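A quick aside before the break. I want you to see a complete sequence-to-structure record at least once, exactly as it would be stored in a machine-readable document. Don't worry about memorizing anything.
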Amino acid sequence: MSVNLLIAPDVDQAERFMRHVGATEALEAGILTPMAGTRPVRLFSLAEAEHFLVEHNGAAVALGGAWATVNYVDPGQLAAWVENVLGDTELSVALTSIASTRRPYGFLVPEMKTLIASRVEQLNEVLGVVEVAAM
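That is the input. The structure line, written in tokens, reads:
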């Protein structure tokens, strides 16, 4: 397991934090494309939120030009969703701390993604979930 500064929850908490939520509780996000605008996306779990966060470097976005895409979720809304919907206060506080730096979004994504991925890995360990490597 990667180093994780978040305290491991009990099994009941881990199940709550990792659950898939219904449509009314989904996190609203968007895929931004300069020529096409924003395509709304709904995220239904913490694992989906982690997967949705994509680290981009400036060169990759510039190379894509008018059709480059950026997966965007408001960092404050992400932290609030983690707190109010999933109930993971500790992760929410850590995400709020990252968002409060007020750095540009592209600099926040790697830190948020790493933190959420670490939490998902920790929750999977608590739940005894074993991921099978693809061949």
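Two observations worth writing down. The chain has one domain: 11-126. The chain has a mean pLDDT of 89. We'll return to this after the break.
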